[in-house]
Write a structure and sequence with these properties.
Length: about 190
């Protein structure tokens, strides 16, 4: 079957304590004259994260948290109004602001789901346990996602992230087992 990756960006920031913060959305643009902003969600559970009376951690220079006072949908985006953001100028100052969560606040995953940032750096081995390389990135695609592999001899190749080719992902040992057809990475 198809392996699934939650739609979560690879970007993150690191706090002073070394804790990664992960973006869950960002302000695309101001909307209207009363301080509303258009927010694009970056995660599958965005609708649960952008609710009224919720405080959002932000990377904005002016404030670290913003409280949502109203929310409605605007196509695939969220139209939000924050406490204290009452003019178009206030809203425009927030354009580009990212909303962040701590790594441990991510949603629980199904057994066939992994976070992109957790896969990067995993060792890749064949069915006999022989090292092939390491995951350097994940290419997220509409039809299927692909593991970007840096081979032991320094070449780069992509492996479709599907159950037939990737029968095992062991996050405890940070090891991904692949069953590749002849010539796929040669």
């Amino acid at each position: 079957g198809r392996r699934r990756l939650p739609r979560l960006t690879r970007c993150h920031t690191v706090t002073e304590s070394g804790q990664q913060r992960i973006p869950v959305g960002y302000v695309r643009r101001a909307h209207g004259i009363h301080g509303d902003v258009v927010v694009r969600g970056l995660v599958a559970d965005a609708a649960e994260r952008f609710t009224v009376d919720r405080d959002l951690m932000s990377d904005a220079a002016s404030t670290t948290t913003l409280r949502i006072v109203s929310q409605r949908m605007n196509g695939v985006d969220f139209l939000l109004h924050f406490e204290g953001v009452d003019s178009r100028e206030d809203a425009e100052a927030l354009v580009g602001t990212q909303f962040l969560i701590e790594r441990d606040q991510r949603r629980d995953l199904d057994s066939d789901e992994w976070w992109v940032e957790d896969l990067v750096g995993c060792d890749v081995v064949d069915l006999d346990g022989q090292a092939i390389g390491r995951v350097s990135d994940v290419a997220v695609g509409a039809a299927q996602d692909r593991l970007v592999l840096e081979t032991l001899d320094g070449r780069r190749c992509e492996i479709p992230f599907v159950g037939q080719l990737v029968p095992a992902v062991d996050m405890d040992s940070r090891r991904i087992t692949v069953d590749l057809p002849e010539g796929l990475i040669e």
